[in-house]
Give the backbone structure.
Amino acid sequence: MTYRVAVIGAGITGLTAARRLCKDARLQEQNVEITVYEASDRIGGKVITYRDGRLTLEGGPDSILARKPAGINLLRELGLASEVVEQNPASTHTYIVKDGKLRSMPRGTHMAIPRDISTFMESDVLSAQGKFRTLFDLLLPRTDLSKDVSLGHFLRTRLGDEWVDGLAEPLLAGIYAGNIDELSLQATWPQFGQLADEYRSLIIGARSMRPKAAPANQNGRSAFITVKGGLETVIERLADELEPNVTIKKSHHISKLEQTSEGYQLTVETNGDVTTATFDAVLVCTPVKAMKRLLDVHLPARSKQFDVPYVSTATVILGYPADSVDVDLSHASGFLVPRTENRAITASTWVSSKWPHTTDERFVILRCYVGRAGQQAYLSLDDVEMARLVQREVRELVGLSASPAFHKVTRWNDAMPNYPVGHLSQWANLEEDIRASLPGVWVAGGGYRGLGLPDCIVHGEEVAKVALSYLTQQVRSR
């Protein structure tokens, strides 16, 4: 018997789901025909690498978090282990902007929570009053976390507004381009809740987290890794591996999903043509909005309420002639910008320092991020205006007065999911309702259970395994 499976979405989640399903089906000697549908004209989702001569520059994510094994495991399975590159260990210093100036992140901290109080008190990022309010966490009673709360509410209660606005917001909410007072604690940084539950005080909990002298992963020192040819190499290798056994259809938009006696019929639109195709199982690996458009009509009222707001962002790459740069950037990976600074730039990576293998001696490369929840106005600028504004802020903050030799703007519309308070319980309800109403359909991706590349890989592989089990047990009995 041959089973037919559709994967909707060819980002990292969809591609790894298709790969796992294909691989496991072969091991179990099952015949599975897999078709991957991608609405855009390229695969890879937010993973995009620009290659120009000796320059390898990322328009989307620039690295994989090594402490989560799914990423390095995938690289190894794709034969890319020898291509792994770690972050330059000489560039681990990070700055934060305060009152228009770069200040060093406080030393002796764990995720900005004081671990060494004496060194934390030496920092000039917070006022004396702000530092003492932070330490008040040591005296506070245990926080009731029986219900989900916002990350900002929890941290403000424990460590104070100044610590949150000056340190936690750009460091923790910045990953989501979100508003820290609207993000779910449980869905974004549950480890803080776990620390508070175990130790009562976040500071006491942070002090128990000993700095690791051992390597952060089995391949080296760095917590972040990439591959020599850029992260799009991973996408290309996935596509090469899938090509003999999986059909990938780009510029194919799925406009409707209907349940039939034969399984699920998809309405497919491409270049003005409309066709249908029927499958035994469907893996929906899309952002939340696209998922809801396909599935809402089939689900009960409580799941129709499931929603995740997405935030638009942009990355601006600036390439400066190396011989015109008189500022030493070699010691640091970049800087973070609190929203209270009211700047276009939300963060900056000093690419030439952090990932020196991606550039050459001709250029000093900076990558700056624009746009976050509540600060979207700068995204209305055209590419040239945005690059000029970012260049001006780099000059003001870093002192880099040279003019860039080139710039590259990449826009990500509705790209960053911001998990709201109560997200995990709402997601659990959605999964339950899909199982009951749409057996043979699964949902996965960054909008649901973690937006980092390793999280997406894990989610894609998990639904692939469950889908194969369903096919061999349920469909066979029909």
Observations:
- The two ends are 12 Å apart (CA to CA).
- Confidence is low (pLDDT under 50) at residues 212-221.
